[in-house]
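pls read this protein.

:::
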Amino acid sequence: MKKLFSILSLIGLFFIATNANASLLSAKDFVQQDQETEEQMDAEEEMSEKEQDTIDAYDEQDEFVEEAEEEAVEEVVEEVQEAEEELGFHQELKKRFIEGGPGFMGIVLLCLILGLAIAIERIIYLNLATTNTKKLAEKVEDALSSGGVEAAKDVCRETPGPVASIYYQGLDRADESVEAAEKAVVAYGGVQMGQLEKNVSWVSLFIALAPMLGFMGTVIGMIKAFDKIEAAGDMQPSLVAGGIKVALLTTVFGLIVAIILQIFYNYIVAKIDNIVNDMEDASITLIDMLVEYKNKK
């Protein structure tokens, strides 16, 4: 009986040892599997981080490309807007000109064109007529002292301008007397002044005519507006607006033309006054030179 219990005890111990070994092996396998799982998860996390970095790099690149495209689009839009503004000004001017009515607006435009043409011609002529009076007087005096009247006349022939022409006329009468030379200078000075003021009165006429035409267009536009009100029998803004707009446009264009021409006119008048003053000073200097020349003879 004791032997039977011993055998059963040994068998139990064997089964217990076998189960313990199996448990240890299972635990080791579980630990190893857990480590492999952690390593796999770490590798997956590294791959995810790399993929995220790549995605971030692509996002930054896309943002840079989008910013560059937006800047380029803004530049193109600004250029287009500037071109539209320039074109819009000309189109707006053309539109307002047509709305003002071709009749009065055409006459006002004609006044501007003719006035500017005359003003530009006068400015060119006056600039060519301007000379250095002091330098001319010195040349004439030196020629008169060294070569006589004929040498002084040659200097005047070679010099353009009204002052040189007055000198020539005075020297041409110098052989007669100083009084005759003075009369010739005064008479020819009036002729030169008339040439300087030639066609300037037309500019002043256009200055006065342009706003008058504008005011006439204003009156006609108001008459048309009241005619429409009378025909409709009702005071509606749409009926009055067209006539009033025509009236205002013709007035504005007439005043603009008058202002432009007035600026040119004032410049021309100031230029003529300067040349006339030079002519008067030159005349006095010439008479003094002739008196001195006669006294030396």
About this structure: The helical segments are 2-99, 102-129, 133-158, 162-172, 178-196, 200-232, 237-296. The first helix runs from residue 2 to 99. The chain has two domains: 1-99, 101-297. The mean pLDDT is 76.
